[in-house]
What we know:
Elements: H1 3-7, E1 33-34, E2 42-43, E3 54-59, E4 71-80, E5 86-89, E6 98-100, H2 108-114, E7 122-127, E8 148-158, E9 172-175, E10 181-185, E11 198-203, E12 215-224, E13 230-233, E14 243-244, H3 252-258, E15 266-271, E16 293-302
Antiparallel strand pairs: 1-2, 3-7, 4-5, 4-6, 4-8, 7-8, 9-10, 11-15, 12-13, 12-14, 12-16, 15-16
Amino acid sequence: xxxxxxxxxxxxxxxxxxxxxxxxxxxxxxxxxxxxxxxxxxxxxxxxxxxxxxxxxxxxxxxxxxxxxxxxxxxxxxxxxxxxxxxxxxxxxxxxxxxxxxxxxxxxxxxxxxxxxxxxxxxxxxxxxxxxxxxxxxxxxxxxxxxxxxxxxxxxxxxxxxxxxxxxxxxxxxxxxxxxxxxxxxxxxxxxxxxxxxxxxxxxxxxxxxxxxxxxxxxxxxxxxxxxxxxxxxxxxxxxxxxxxxxxxxxxxxxxxxxxxxxxxxxxxxxxxxxxxxxxxxxxxxxxxxxxxxxxxxxxxxx
Length: 303
């Protein structure tokens, strides 16, 4: 199952909410136990609750530090402190889910638990009601005032590896202070047009190769080539929902170029009009007929 980190994003389970302040503290995070099994079990004291979100590092990792705005890959177990029952886990899945730790898109308790940790760490996070989902989640028997307990194994951080500069024939990739793409900046040396679709690997991932027909989860920024018009991005809202890479489901250059790339990679796609939105464009997005598009895409997961 991937409900908390992926499939239930649309339902709001992992999205930021206005948490309640019900409940006090009737437990200590040090009293939570975790088994060493391949699919670990988390046990909490009876009627466990905390008034302030707390984190305990069980095993420190030696990888990169996690910052706000990063996309991380993490396996998890989720337990209701009130009932002691596990209500979700990802450990039975083949691929650890990915989540972008955006302040406007992520439950504040998850942010507090993961930001500042390092890749490779196993951490327990006891999330106070005020940092939780902010409303009852009846399908999981979660009430607004419940404390949630998450065990996280932080598997990775995207993109992987060292960045490689783009060819001078392309505009330069613009990053914010934490290294997250915001778009492209025109340069004097860039080509006036891109007549042939092309892919350029900025960071080389080490995951499985994306296969034709798979559903892909990604972060991206899309911009009209040669202009300042950013017509779409996902870093502020979290990774895309799974989308089908079959021909006809996305712009042709995504189907042509992303198949065969490795998960964990950051790539830049240059897409001439015939591999984008063609003669019709997408006027509602600021894309005119004949416009060339340029994308930066982080490949997170494929199913």
